[in-house]
Q: What sequence folds into this?
């Protein structure tokens, strides 16, 4: 028997704006749950959840940490996520396996961008708020609560209200039981008397609580309007059902670093948050990629979903959730993505880096295993090798911010490539492309901090030193005018000579590559040399004459030439074609082409003016604007040269404080404006000269 059966499991995910106290709250829970003997501080780099060297160095969470406690005979799996925007992939992964999201908001500044994004990201889950830092002298719960209601509506339901905020006498009032508490240094609570001066304030919150509960049914709504009081039972049942359905978001409060309010939250989590049994519908995906829902069975064959992997010096750890049945140690599972078998020789639960081996994990539990060889994020593994049930993958944003990696030491390329591919396995919001054309190792991410973390990890985990530089733009060249030119290659001094002579008409083409034809009359160029001419042109097109970029959209018609019985060869005709090509480009008004991409940027409605102004500066052409599914957000479509997009991710974030997001996909090549082309040509030539 698994130590915890499914009804005794809670999977909660802490999300919210960076710095509002998620990791500190996790630490407080772990301390109160006796998973740690010392209360760590993120500022001191000694918390359980910020264990990664990158987190200690930066003082922010950059990955999701898993830790569990036992509370009230319930196992609470805590997923502490990063708040910083670059690491949204980690948040999405954690939310995929949690039944409830706890949005942490500091009481000092109310709703921030990260709070809004947290709400949006957790739209499919029941959500609770924890208003943190009520010990702070600038704490203002009332304003914070108001901003939550203003942003997210009356479903935001007050539960624990602090009073004497920011003072020694910091206490909380429980609106459901009408009891006030104070917490000591160890987080133990004792009852206190609600001061007279707070009574009206609490009555006010009672009304708001009733208002939220009334929203859950017509019956209660009627009572609320008639100003009839709701009974305790009505309140409890409305609260529970509303919370599970996501129509009520209860608001708790406390102070993570003072351990106050945290014990209350833990009780509520253990008693009222949903267990995996309350959420047995699972999204699955069929072979055609269609998503549908099935109902999990806690007694069926064991299957798991992998939501995270981590490679450290001891090897690869695989984090998973049991999605069906009970998973027993030593089970051989089949990875349904690739058909490979994997043995689960070790099963463990964890508290940060500390693992505890277990013999089995019940349906809904989250655990970790090691030494899986062919298993990655988003994979489903089943004990039934014929199973067709694959869980829907985590939807992650695509990376568009690109930088090029330059090895500090020559010869490190292979080490870097293999390090990157290991790191990419852990983070599906990174992409790597070794661009043969620009000869750059291009790394794509969601922002510069994520890429910076990748660089440090490459250094620390794989011992390679790298630098970053802007990614080069793959320009192209073409001609604009139809021209007839000649190319003659002749070397006839002594011995076997060389002779090839072609006359070619070049003109702008519609197709990407070369369109070759011939209209040679009377065998002026023998047929067997046509392929050499075509090949010669094709090879020449790899390097244009303006700045050495590949040439595209070229039509060439070989219409005349001459040959020599003995000295003509394929090579001579290839060289002649090359001479003709160069002349053709010179006379044919060669121009530089630049890649244009289609940009779709999703921004808050009121940012439209700024966004469009910025796109104009980037030589963008606005194609239109449209509504989005997301309330208050507009999508702006534009066509923008790739050359102008290098810093867009960062600029967009700065302009929208992180609210904006975008996609950018290559569309076509367009002629660069003359002044842009001149600059590019001059710069390319300069860098070529520098070697
Ligand atoms: N005064 C006060 N500061 C807190 C509290 N919780 C967290 N902090 C501080 O807020 C900062 C960010 O905390 P952290 O837990 O790393 O936030 P996260 O980014 O949401 O994980 C740190 O300096 C913490 O010491 C609290 O309850 N009261
Ligand atoms: Mg954190």
A:
């Amino acid at each position: 028997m698994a130590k915890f059966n499914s009804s005794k499991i809670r999977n909660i995910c802490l999300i919210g704006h960076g710095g509002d106290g998620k990791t500190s709250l996790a630490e407080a829970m772990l301390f109160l749950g006796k998973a740690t003997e010392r209360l760590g501080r993120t500022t001191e780099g000694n918390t359980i959840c910020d264990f990664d060297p990158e987190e200690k160095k930066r003082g922010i969470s950059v990955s999701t940490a898993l830790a569990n406690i036992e509370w009230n005979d319930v196992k609470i799996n805590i997923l502490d996520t990063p708040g910083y925007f670059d690491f949204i992939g980690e948040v999405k992964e954690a939310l995929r396996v949690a039944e409830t999201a706890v949005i942490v908001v500091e009481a000092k500044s109310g709703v921030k961008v990260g709070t809004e994004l947290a709400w949006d990201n957790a739209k499919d889950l029941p959500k609770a708020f924890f208003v943190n830092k009520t010990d702070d002298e600038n704490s203002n719960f009332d304003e914070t609560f108001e901003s939550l209601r203003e942003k997210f509506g009356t479903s935001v339901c007050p539960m624990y209200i602090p009073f004497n905020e920011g003072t020694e006498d910091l206490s909380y009032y429980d609106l459901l039981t009408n009891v006030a508490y104070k917490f000591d240094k160890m987080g133990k609570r004792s009852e206190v008397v609600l001061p007279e001066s707070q009574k009206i304030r609490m009555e006010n919150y009672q009304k708001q609580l009733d208002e939220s509960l009334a929203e859950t049914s017509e019956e209660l709504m009627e009572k609320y309007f008639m100003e009839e009081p709701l009974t305790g039972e009505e309140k409890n049942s409305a609260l529970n059902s509303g919370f599970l359905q996501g129509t009520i978001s209860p608001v708790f409060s406390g102070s993570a670093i003072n351990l106050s309010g945290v014990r209350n939250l833990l009780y509520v989590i253990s008693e009222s948050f949903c267990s995996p049994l309350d959420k047995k519908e699972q999204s699955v995906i069929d072979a055609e990629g269609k998503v549908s829902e099935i109902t999990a069975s806690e007694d069926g064959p064991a299957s798991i979903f992998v939501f995270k992997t981590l490679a450290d010096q001891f090897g690869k750890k695989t984090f998973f959730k049991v999605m069906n049945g009970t998973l027993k140690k030593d089970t051989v599972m089949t990875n349904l993505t690739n058909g490979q078998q994997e043995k689960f020789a070790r099963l463990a639960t964890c508290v940060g880096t500390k693992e505890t081996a277990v013999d089995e994990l019940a349906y809904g539990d989250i655990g970790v295993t090691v030494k899986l060889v062919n298993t990655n994020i988003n994979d489903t593994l089943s004990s039934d090798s014929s199973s067709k049930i694959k869980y829907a993958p985590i939807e992650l944003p695509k990376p568009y911010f690109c930088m090029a990696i330059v090895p500090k030491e020559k010869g490190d390329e292979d080490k870097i490539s293999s390090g990157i591919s290991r790191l990419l396995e852990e983070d599906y919001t990174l992409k790597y492309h070794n661009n043969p054309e620009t000869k750059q190792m291009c790394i794509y991410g969601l922002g510069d901090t994520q890429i910076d973390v990748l660089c440090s990890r490459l250094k620390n985990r794989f011992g390679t030193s790298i630098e970053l530089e802007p990614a080069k733009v793959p320009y192209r060249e073409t001609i604009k005018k139809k021209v007839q030119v000649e190319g003659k290659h002749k070397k006839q001094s002594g011995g076997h000579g060389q002779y090839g002579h072609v006359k070619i008409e070049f003109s702008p083409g519609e197709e990407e590559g070369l369109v070759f034809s011939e209209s040679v009359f009377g065998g002026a160029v023998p047929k067997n040399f046509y392929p050499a001419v075509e090949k010669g042109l094709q090879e020449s097109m790899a390097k244009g004459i303006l700045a050495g970029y590949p040439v595209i959209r070229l039509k060439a018609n070989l219409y005349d030439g001459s040959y020599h019985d003995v000295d003509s060869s394929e090579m001579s005709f290839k060289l002649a074609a090359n001479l003709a090509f160069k002349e053709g480009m010179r006379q044919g008004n060669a121009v530089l082409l630049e890649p244009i991409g289609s940009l779709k940027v999703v921004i808050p409605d009121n940012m439209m003016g700024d966004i469009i102004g910025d796109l104009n500066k980037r030589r963008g052409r606005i194609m239109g604007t449209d509504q989005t599914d997301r309330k208050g957000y507009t999508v702006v479509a534009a066509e923008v040269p790739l050359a102008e997009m290098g810093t867009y991710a960062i600029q967009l974030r700065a302009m929208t404080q992180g609210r904006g997001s975008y996609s950018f996909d290559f569309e076509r090549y367009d002629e660069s404006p003359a002044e842009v082309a001149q600059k590019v040509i001059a710069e390319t030539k300069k860098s070529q000269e520098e070697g």
